[in-house]
Amino acid sequence: MQDPAFIKEIQHKAQSLSEQVSAEFGSLDGETLNMQPAPKKWSVGECLDHLITTSRSYHPLFTKLVSGTYKPNWWEHSSPFSGYFGRLLIESTGPVVKKPYKSPPAFQSTRSRVPADIVEAFLREYRQWQDWVGQLSELDVDKTRVTSPASGLVTYSLRDCLTIIQGHTERHINQARRALETVAAHTNEQ
């Protein structure tokens, strides 16, 4: 069914998170954005770059959804696992980290040092996603099933897809906050 209240809730969360990212990370210099809190731990910039990479992997899907050219394939239409995968990914990639997971190759950042304008790049990308979400209000978010860009076997409802993306974004913004806190504490000790 169409669920304008759900779409508005996602939009509200996304807008709030955009404002927080701008306020918390917008004034950081390139050096700070690239400081890792520990070896093999992502910097603020790497967290944002990962979110950009993940978001871009959804571009083909959202372009089709908003243009009305999306046609579900046989597996999206008939997979008996869509509900299971949706619940699993909402739980495992949401804002609260119960267990850390390694990102699938499709979502991994391709660089260890990010440009100083990574915050602006993230905000542009996230605005694009917010625009797409706003254009999805006419779709049945429960019956529309889509495939994860990470694996052709993983399908879930559009509602779960939007919930996964928003929760995953919150998760990595929280990770970026922790990275900045650790870096700031280490810098203050010196």
Structural features, described:
With 190 residues, the chain is mainly α. It has a single domain, classed as Up-down Bundle (Four Helix Bundle (Hemerythrin (Met), subunit A)), CATH 1.20.120. Helices cover 61% and strands 3% of the residues. It contains eight helices and two strands; from the N terminus they run αααααααββα. A two-stranded antiparallel ribbon has the order 1-2. A hairpin with a 7-residue loop joins strand 1 (145-147) and strand 2 (155-157). The radius of gyration is 17 Å and the shape is globular. The N and C termini lie far apart (56 Å). The mean pLDDT is 92.
CATH topology: Four Helix Bundle (Hemerythrin (Met), subunit A)
The residue ranges in which pLDDT falls below 50 over 5 or more consecutive positions are none
Q: Say which CATH homologous superfamily is assigned.
A: dinb family like domain
Mean pLDDT: 92
CATH structural architecture:
Up-down Bundle
Outline type: globular
Helix and strand pattern: HHHHHHHEEH
**Tally of individual domains:** 1
Q: How much helical structure, as a percent, in the residues?
A: 55-70%
CATH C-level category: Mainly Alpha
Provide the gyration radius in Å.
Answer: 17 Å
Kindly name the structural category: mainly alpha
Proportion of residues in extended strands: under 5%
Contiguous helical run count: 8
Main beta sheet, described?
2 strands, antiparallel
